[in-house]
Amino acid sequence: MNLKTFLSKSVIFSALIFCAFSANLFAQTVRAEKTGSVAAYVRDKDEDAGLVRKRTVESATLKTKSPVKPPASEVWGFEKLAFSLINQKRTEIGLPALEWSDEVAKIARIHSENMVKFNFFSHRGIDGKTVDGRADSLGVTKWTLLGENIAYNRGYENPIETAVEKWMLSPTHRENLLNNRWKESAIGIAITDDGTYYFTQVFIKRK
User: Fold this and answer.
1) Residue 207 and residue 203: Cα distance in Å, rounded?
2) 7-41 burial, b if ≥16 CB within 10 A, otherwise e?
3) Which of 92, 108, 117, 189 can bridge 200 by disulfide, Cβ–Cβ 3.0-4.6 Å?
4) Separation of CA 128 from chain center
5) Which of 194, 19, 187, 198 is closest to 116 using CA atoms?
């Protein structure tokens, strides 16, 4: 991507981290702490510098269960469930529903799969690419604005609903989810053997 093209595009990043950890340090305990935090990075062509914001989302307790990794055939259904829950939030406040894009889903899935494969959690992949670079590498180049939300969780009875709920609790993620600029979007989910769910949602505004 040349400098002119890069400066003409806006990229919005949001990340959400929350994980339920199991612990056996104290034989007496049957509950594990559930903690969370969010970090957001925003780059806009009208700004000279990005803005980084962090805040705590939640500190509570949760009964944990042994993780069970679902078969691969169910994962696409999880993606569509998360997507439908987000569209429900949008329609509740009078916003149009987002259109699912299989092309955008490839961008989202490859990032979630890489986070699982290489054991990291970040908007920037191990190849150094962020969502704009991943889009360009997959031939999705005719865009003017891209956004991305990521999340992971483990130990929740309803991991899909939990991811959407935590995104909605964060102002920066909620802004992406309920932004009227987006027309198309998709979600990619990947799951580790220990039952950790990684989520990537990509939003796109095309030229």
Assistant:
1) 14
2) eebbbbbbbbbbbbeeeeeeeeeeebebebebbbb
3) 108
4) 18
5) 198
The single-letter code of the amino acid at 52 is: V
The CA distance from 99 to 96, in Å, is 9
Joined tokens for residue 83: 């997507």
Beta bridge partners of 54: 39
Name 188's bridge partners: 200
Amino acid identity for residue 50 in this structure = G
What's the average model confidence in pLDDT over 197-202?
95
Return the amino acid letter for 153: N
Q: What pLDDT is recorded for position 73?
A: 77
Q: Please tell me what DSSP assigns to residue 179.
A: -
| Three-class SS state of 66 | coil
Structure tokens belonging to residue 39:
């970090």
Looking at residue 207, its pLDDT comes to 86
Q: How far is CA 167 from CA 29, 37, 98, in A?
A: 29, 11, 16
**Torsion, Cα of 129, 189, 11, 48 (10° steps):** -80
For residues 6-22, give the mean pLDDT: 53
**DSSP label of 100:** E
Burial class (CB in 10 A: 0-12, 13-18, 19+), 182: buried
Average pLDDT on 169-195 reads: 94
